[in-house]
Amino acid sequence: MGSPITTWDSVEAYFTGFGGATTMIVFLLAVAVTAGAIYLGHRHEEEAYSKLKEK
């Protein structure tokens, strides 16, 4: 993991994870968790509304 920065003059931020696999893994994990939460919420709401319609 090399750095394209040859001098530290005028460097405002240095992202150490750029270009590594960890960033992509964390991003994909976050997408999967979000999609799972949306799916589970949808499933719960469908079940709740179907029970309400039965009454």
Helix and strand topology:
Blueprint: H1 21-54
Number of strands: 0
Tell me the fraction of residues in β-strands, as a range. Answer: under 5%
Low-confidence stretches: none
Shape: rod-shaped
**Biggest beta sheet attributes:** none
Output the number of helix runs. Answer: 1
Structural class: mainly alpha
Q: Rounded to an integer, what's the Rg over CA atoms?
A: 22 Å
Oligomer: single chain
Terminal CA distance: 62 Å
Helix content: 55-70%
Pattern of helices and strands: H
Mean pLDDT over all positions: 85
Report on the structure:
This protein is mainly alpha-helical. It has one helix at residues 21-54. The longest helix has 34 residues, at 21-54. It starts with 20 loop residues before the first helix and ends with a helix.
Brief overview, please?
The chain is an all-alpha fold and about 55 residues long.
Question: What are the salient characteristics of this protein?
Answer:
mainly alpha; rod-shaped; 62% helix; 55 residues; single chain
